[in-house]
From TrEMBL:
Protein's name according to its UniProt entry: T9SS type A sorting domain-containing protein
Domain Secretion system C-terminal sorting: 611-685
Lineage: superkingdom: Bacteria
Amino acid sequence: TFCENRIKGDVLRHHFHDGLDFGLSEGGEVYSVLATQVTSILREGGNAFIRVGRYAYVHVDPDPNLDVGDKVTAYDKVIAVTNYQNHVHFKDGYPGSEINAIRPGGGLTPLTDTYDPTVAYIKFYKNKSTILFNNNKVNGLVDIVARAYDRTNSASGVGTNNGIYRMSWQVFDSTGTRAVTAKKTPYKFDNIPSSDSYITNVYFVGSDQGTYIYTPTNPVSSDGYWDTRLLDKGRYRVMVEVEDTRGHTATRWATVQVVEQDDAPPPMPVLTMLRGESDGHLQLRWAAMDTSDIAGFNLLFSYDGLSWNENTAMSTSIAIGDTLFAVDNFSSDKSIFFKLRTYDDAALINYSPWSDSYGVRVSADPPPLAIVDGFDGRTGYWRDKRHDFALDYGLALDAMNRGYSTFADESVEKDDRLLSGYPVVLYMTGDDRAPDSALTRGERAAIDRYMRGNGHFIISGTGLYSDALLAGGQTLDFFRTHFANLGGTRVFNADSVYGVAGTALEGFKAAIRDPEGEYLVMDGAAPVPDISRSVLRFNDLQGTSAAVFKDRGKDEPYNNCAVSYLAFPIEMIADRDKRYELVRRLVKMDAVTVLKNRETVPEKFSLGQNYPNPFNPSTVIPYRLSAAARVQLSVYDLSGRLLKTVVKGRQNAGNHRAVFDASGLANGVYYYRLYIEGQGVLIRKMLLLK
């Protein structure tokens, strides 16, 4: 119909339709509706036309015997036949001044149309934006948006989905009986708008060649809005009314609530741990927080730290007041990272900042390591509320094929046994410089307990020695005895570190930068004679020690623990590959905790956990046989319906892997079942997550 939205290439809102389209198959006969002269003809191309008087018939092959100036009789002589576009584009008027050929009180008649138009929905957006108001609660300047269409005949296709002729809107009280605004009619398409640039005033984002979404609060030629500031707070009824050219109308109502403006975000989640168990059970925990302004959570996950996704079912499974999200049967061959935020129930939803990003990789052999996030970014180079530094450590360990869990220092502070059993702990403190901030009393107790065991403790940061020196007493003694470090002079003008010859870090060199590209202010390190040694130095004039290492067998009562102390934040190494290299070399510096995977010989039949898990779209199912046997590996849905037999036949003893492709299946939990003839059946669950 006239003034519908039209596209051009990739531009979905490009111009107004300047005529009417009548479906007619190629070769269909076209007659003039006026008895007058031919005024112009274009004979070539898909847009060929013939104009008789003020009417143009486009997408036709004009009669070759007609020419400009020839007279034709109305409804008598064929003036053209339709071309391959299978319709006539009928225009009343001349370019730039077209009028609606079926307008009431002046258009062509008769036109039989017994169908009412439709208003499919009404929505409310912040003025001049695509920000949707939440739950029809509105404030400030509001755009009313409505999808509407008209049906003109019983045929399928274009006749059932046309643009509307007129649209009006009005606001009433909560009963819908008393008008509180005047009725406004921004659109009544008798004439083509003066510029196609107005198309985005009339049609909202999401409109295309067959979808018509209008913004009736906008006049055709400018921005407009419903100013809710002029109304008292409370509930109202909004009416949108549409009409076709034959006088058929339809209305739709929506209830809204005008509320106070709320720009305050809800509290940001503070992650406390992401821990994995050898059976694939994951636990993501966060600190309890005030829930009075929280309406829900968004939980994102990533497998590479770059591409983030949200599974709505996962997010909505987190209830208000929860501090735990758990996953069962997660794959043991890859990392997964999570970050979390909250949102409120304001008219324009407010979101908290994202939490820090934590990662985990499940592992049994070799045993997993621990990452401790002790960086709060208070006073130094990092001022953002969140960071991805723990994620970066996780990616470094993932590149080594090592499992790990991630803990916040607050968790370590509350449970001094939390780190027990981890062969290596990577403890980052960043740039905290406030007294007792980098390492609290609880953290020191947990570190002391860990170092009395048999592990490798790696700690990094710029402010550890400054904190200890400022606090003095037991804090300073703790620093020197536990980190085998006497503390060094301040370093102001170093921009890189390099490995000390004859140590495990020989040949290593990396630039260090703060986020602004400036020099970091750092405390140097000083080894304790006969106990620790320098393994890294700054490139300042003095070659100040940047890291010390204490091997096992020295410094009772911590002689069973190796210690690596770095006087700068590893996360501030500018090059990612260099960060990963340093983490790898630090972990391997203590030979006792460098454990390797070992091949195992099957002693009995078993069915392993699929990997990856969750997966999309394919996954590997491992199993092993202690003796040759006939086997069948099958996949079922939760109702027990067989979906696919993956393996069927006789197989030799040993380790086996089968690939299952879930393309075409919906998100959800599925069972896989291994039957071994004469030995039994094993069943496991797996999760398809798209």
